[in-house]
Amino acid sequence: MDFQKFADSFFSPTCIVSVEKKAERGYGDIRFVAGNEKYIEMIEMRLENDDFHVAPDAGKKFVPNTLYYKYFPKNRSFEDACFRAAVQKTPVHTYVYLNNVDIWLDIYAMPIDFEDGNTFYCTYTATTNQNADVVLDTLYTAQTSNDVLKTCIKLHRSNDLEEAMEGVITEIRQICNAEGCTVLLLNDSDRTFSILATDFRAESHLKRVTNFSNFYDIATSWKSMIGEEGDCIIIKNKDDMDYVSKINNPWYLTLVEAGVESVVLFPLRQGHEVLGYIWATNFDTNKTMRIKETLELTTFFISSHIARFKVIKRLQYMSYTDALTGLPNRFACTDYIADLIRREERFTVVSIDLNHFKSVNVTLGLEAGNKVLIEIAKRWKAVSDNAASGSSDYVTRINGDEFLLIIFGYKTQEEVRNTIISYADALSEQLVVDGCDLYVTASFGYAEYPTDAVTADSLISNATLAMNAIKKANSSDHILKFSSDAVKNERTLEIENKIRNALENDTIFFNLQPQYDMAHKLRGFEALARMKDSDGNFISPGEFIPIAEKVGLIDRVDNMVFKKSSAFFSSFIKKTGLDLTLSLNASVRHLMKNDFLEEIHSLIDKSGISPEHFEIEITESILIDSADKALQCINKLREMGVKLAIDDFGTGYSSLSYLNKIPANLLKIDKSFIDKINANESSKQYVAAIISMGHIMGLDVISEGVEEEEQLEALRSIGCDYVQGYIWGRPMSAEDAEKLVNSLGD
């Protein structure tokens, strides 16, 4: 028979294959007898390209009647298809996916009615397709298409690959009528494997692969058996097992020990990377072709999903893991806390900061500092994994030398503290870095959910406040639980630092709030201290002024406001010639300073403003705390011509005898009385009594915090002289105050 002429009659790439028949339905050599031009081009392209597997002695041209594995990797699926077509005279339609070139081969093996002794023949046609959709359309059984479709739908619909694969693997085992079915993933970086999904018949006695300690090595050995272009491994009888015994005896021994009689195994690939393997064990060998086809295509889809799964897992690991120490990072920590809150579990957040760690970086360098952090993380991870305390711990690195520990599953506060102590004790042993012995300690502050806070941010914040408090206390005990007192003390320290920074950087500034008589004529302005932190955030005067008083910085704040406001005020007084008053608040501490009068003298001299344009406001508490010294200072001020106002009158322990001695000009009624002035008649009469008392002593009276028209009318009806408040003017910038003054002349 002229095989070459017969091959040339085909349009698609086709070759003529000979199969040597052996006894007991076996086969021997399989050869490419001839091929048409398209098939020979495909073979010779492989011979010229190093990316494809060919035998070393294959040459550069196709030679008729050559063993097929000279040009292609040995492949049991190819051999089975040719045997069935040539020897058993059964037409075969199947397909193969070549992962390394991302091509599907649509394959037809058709019997040739010609025999030569024990040699039988068939045609082998391979048509390339670019996607799996075409292959699905060409499957010769509707059942296979349906099996593949169900698998794809399950995978595409699920966001949880592990959960989806548990269902898919059960269905694949049932399709294969197999005793067991497993998906194994490889982790080549640490030479381990993991089982993504597995399913066994209820009565199965197969030994699981996880029982073999060296199974990673067994799994990696399959790659060389399959080859870069191979599609699967099929073991369906004793002959196949004997063959495996010769080429991969370690695997063969595990198969025997596990009780395996047959297996069909496919690699899960993404490009040239082998992600893992899927296999069915002790399957129905009468349905080998259908099982092979089903697994061929489902493996293609499973591989793409596993590749995506591994990428997502890797991205999650990178985004949730501290690169230096390998501990979970801030994002992982907050997610972990949020999950515990959703589950409404009681837990404790511990903020940890290494003591004096900066000195390690300064003296030994950043690289040495990193080694210290890595070693500490290693020790704390060991404590966490040990869980000797009985609680569950989750230790994370937040930033620099800051760590966060989450403790849950405890019963008492004593257990929490003992757990924290175990982390502190892990630092007791010296660290040796670059030949230097180092001893590192840490400060621990902790807060509990839901007792101390109910959100992730507030828990972390409160734990950090407690940690900072114990760190600054410089106590031998480095562990502190959060309390409201700790917050107050910590906030005081924080604001104190902000005030000091503002004073050093000259960033204390002032606003001016206008004061009017009852006819809405401008009397003057009160200068009010204002402050922003280094980030530009506004700090409420209700917060920073009491702290400035408490820590002894209020006189410096006052002085800065005095200087800046008087310098500005003098400029538009000189321009306009208006008779306006600048009212300045003097704290008790400030007024009591020995050089206070010299400071006011200097202020008047440098500003060039007449003393009667200045008004010093004092609180009535001065009359109780330091009456004699205060009176001396006040009398000196009045001799200089400076006006005096008594602020917040009625809120302290006023003494009419003291009040009668003070040569004041103005009495200021506190806002708290104005807020209630129209609440009832007695409130209104109380304010009226204060105004009358002031008038009796020869003082003008101004009401603070006037915000409503009804308040204004009530004050007008009871004889108030001046008002200050939002109704006619909020505190404003110096520039806006100047615009207001300039508008008076229009």
Summarize the structure.
The chain is an alpha+beta fold and 746 residues long. Helices cover 46% and strands 24% of the residues.
Average pLDDT level: 84
Query: Which segments are poorly predicted (pLDDT under 50) over 5 or more consecutive residues?
Result: 132-149
Tally of DSSP helical segments: 27
Q: Main sheet, how many strands, which sense, barrel?
A: 8 strands, mixed, barrel
Instruction: Classify the oligomer.
Output: single chain
Termini separation = 119 Å
Gyration radius over CA:
45 Å
Strand order of the largest sheet: 19-20-22-23-24-25-26-27
Give the overall shape: elongated
Strand residue content: 15-25%
Please estimate the helix content.
40-55%
What labels describe this entry?
alpha+beta; eight-stranded mixed beta barrel; 746 residues; six-stranded antiparallel β-sheet; 27 strands
Please give a structural write-up.
It is a single chain. The protein has about 750 residues and is of the alpha+beta class. The strands form 5 sheets. Strands 19-20-22-23-24-25-26-27 form an 8-stranded mixed barrel, surrounded by 5 helices. The protein has a 6-stranded antiparallel beta sheet with strand order 3-2-1-6-5-4. Helix 23 links the parallel strand 24 and strand 25. The longest helix has about 35 residues. The radius of gyration is 45 Å and the shape is elongated. The N and C termini lie far apart (about 120 Å).
